[in-house]
Amino acid sequence: MPGLSAVPAPRPEPSLRWLVGLLLVAALLPRLGVFFLNENLYGDAVVRTELAERWLASPHVITSYKDGTYQFGPLHLYLVGAVLSVFERDVAGRLVSLVFGVLSVMPLFALTRRLFGWRAGVAAGLAFSAWGMHLQFSTTAGSEAVSLFFMLAVFALVAEGVEENRFQPLFWAGMLLNLACALRYDAWMYIPLITVALVFSSEDRVASLTRAVGFGLACLPFPLLWMQGNELAHGDPFFPMKAVDDFHRQWVADSGGAGGALVWRLQQLGFWPAVALFTLTPGVALLGAVGMVKAWKQHPETRWLVAMAVLPALYFTFRAAVLLSFVPLARFTVTQLVLLPVFLAPGFAAVVAGRGAFARRAVVGASAVLAVVMPVALGIYTFRTEGGLHDSLRPVSPTSTNPVAVMQVARFLKEEVAARGGAAAVDDDPRYMDLQLAFFSGLPEMRLARVRWDTFRQRLQDAKPDVLVRFDGGNLLKDPGVRLEGRTLTLDGVAYQEQDGFLAPLHVYRRQP
């Protein structure tokens, strides 16, 4: 119609394939850049890999805590075990994380594009691609990157089902949430959270309740089976969660927070915001936070997603700062922090509203520079450097490397003991570095006598170790069968002589003829 000729036609959206491909490349390149530098250290990466090796040696359906998975999710062991059949132990778990870490940009883009448009989706994807802490998760064998992929897919499908008023996406969201629950226990809280959010997702109460009930039922298969397995094995369907909670309570006590020290409580109160500002970098974190506030006021349809970020953070903060029953770690925050980039676009619009082009470019430029420079600088700062602030920042750094002294002894064991068919005895370490040492030594479990395990004496008799490794502060010297005189250590009547060239806190001894 002639009257509409003055109305500008909407600009077409670029090819969806091109946009997704761009974001996949943007996510892959920095992760590949650190993949060949990083080593399994945090997130119980080496323990998860060793448990996956045990599962691969005897594949079965894991049904409970004591059935081979302990406090970890069984799905992660299945995935790592499958890849272990093709790749070496140091690579397999990291490859699993890399694949799911890169693919995570797809549901993140889909979720953000649906809520705020394709430009917002691209901005969120690029911010995610530069997220330094996630670079580490994507290149080490923890479960964070894998779990985050499924959680983002759940959020994207829930948003699709609510907007399009269809149950099928909600059903698949429930199915995927089963998988997330089979990876990490923190995913379990999203079953009631999303279910309650769906109750208020529409003014049509019948439709809302139908969505909520259907989604809740779809989420139940794995949790119910897992609870049944633990009830049969331990007499308590929630045994794994209680074991984790007990560990955290003891951790609080060991960390000096059991007495309710004010400094401890204040640290926990600011933990989630501090991790957001430092790892996502200030520009992304602040714009995302402002965007959440704006979206809550102006876009009621997005309030459920804001709640998915805020309520778990408040719950864990309350447990840490008030109940003193939880020790937060940066890796526990990822499911909440990953939602901040979703709200970048409304946050940017709110910050630059009424300002000129220069201010807009300045905000974008400063945020982009910080998002790239901070992770790069942190990665360089913590790479193969130890002590003080380096150790404190390493858990959130893009680079993850073991202590130089540990890797030096691990290489010695791999080249001089494992390669020659020998065996070794390994002391335990208060910082759990004996787990790292055993993993990177290349020695099979039957040729390792480890003080940490109750099989220590049996392995000594069977393997007759050629080499013994002692840690300062370890429990080996407390053993009644051990005597240290100068540079000679005697274990059950067998003498070992200390070797030169190794760094404290490790000491290497060779068996005397």
UniProtKB/TrEMBL annotation:
It is found in: Cell membrane. GO terms for molecular function: pentosyltransferase activity. Residues 74-210 form the Glycosyltransferase RgtA/B/C/D-like domain. The chain crosses the membrane at residues 18-38, 91-110, 116-133, 145-162, 182-200, 212-229, 271-293, 305-327, 333-353, 362-383. One of its GO terms (biological process) is lipopolysaccharide biosynthetic process. InterPro entries: LipidA_mod_glycosyltrf_83, RgtA/B/C-like. GO terms for cellular component: plasma membrane. Keywords: Cell membrane, Glycosyltransferase, Membrane, Transferase, Transmembrane, Transmembrane helix. It is a multi-pass membrane protein. PANTHER family: MANNOSYLTRANSFERASE YKCB-RELATED (PTHR33908), MEMBRANE PROTEIN (PTHR33908:SF11). This is Glycosyltransferase RgtA/B/C/D-like domain-containing protein. It comes from Corallococcus llansteffanensis.
